[in-house]
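Board notes (copied after class):
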Amino acid sequence: MKEFKTSDIQRGYISANVGDLVDCPLWWHRQGLIQTSSGYGGKLTSRYKISLDGKLRRLYHTCYGNAASTWFTLKGEKVHVR
């Protein structure tokens, strides 16, 4: 797990690898369930968290179609994860 700082955020993006994240599944992740019946949505809860300034923040996905974007919120603003 990598400890990120607020200074690592550039233009609303932060670069992270899967190895930099913390696996924190919710109960329905453990049971193999999905959040919506279609698997698509604007704020899908991820099983991963990112450590930013000593605090774990839950990652979310926005998925419509064949691609998804991953993000978390910081002071009410979306920070996208590359």
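Comment from the instructor: The chain has a mean pLDDT of 95. The CA atoms of residues 16 and 82 lie 6 Å apart.
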